[in-house]
Amino acid sequence: MLLGTPVKAALSAAAVASALLIPAAGTASAAPASGSTSGSGATVSAAASSFDAKCRSHSRTYVLKKYYRRVPVGPPTFYTLRCGTSTWGWKHIKLRHGWNSSMDRKISAAIGSGDPNGRGGYSTYANQCPRIEKFRTILGTPGGNNDLLTAYKVDQPAVAGAVAC
User: Which of 29, 73, 108, 123 is most solvent-facing, going by the fewest CB within 10 Å?
Assistant: First the structure.
């Protein structure tokens, strides 16, 4: 049976309205609230998707995150944060230096726009002369040369191989 134009218009309008009211599966309004309970009564928290949970269920070479560095010519270079062990990677950083969103931001800033530090990584510096190194990353692990070995806060003059002020 063919539908007339007014009927088609009404159906189209109803479909658009329902699409606007029903949140998509990947949106925040469609996701369960943090701390909500599942059908079994267990509490569902954001920690279930944390780096810790991912590393418990994957190998030490599992890539948790990619940090990007802009280069003058060509596509950006990326460096990976892998689960690692107690001596390198995310597990090492968490154990020895602590992990939180601030550490993640500092790593991103150092790799993204920091200066080479003379130790196989990138650092951020205080805006003064002589330059004082504030945060350091070191790259190169058993998992790969472009992997984050460690990252930590420092407060000392720049090392010999670093960019002069």
Answer: 73
Q: For residues 47 and 145, what is the distance between their CA atoms, to the nearest angstrom?
A: 30
The conformational region for residue 35 under phi > 0 = left, psi -120 to 50 = alpha, else beta, is left
* 104 burial via Cβ count (<10 Å: 0-12, 13-18, 19+): middle
Distances (CA, A) of 120 to 20, 42, 70, 141, 159: 51, 45, 17, 11, 12
∠ CA(154), CA(160), CA(165), 5° rounding? 80
**54 by DSSP, 3-state: which?**
helix
Could you report the per-residue pLDDT of 42-70, keeping only the tens digit for each?
333 343 348 999 999 999 999 999 999 98
| CA–CA dist 111, 109 (Å, integer) | 6
H helix intervals, the chain: 5-21, 51-57, 89-97, 101-113
pTM of the model: 0.65
128 Cα distance to chain centroid: 29
Mean pLDDT of the chain: 75
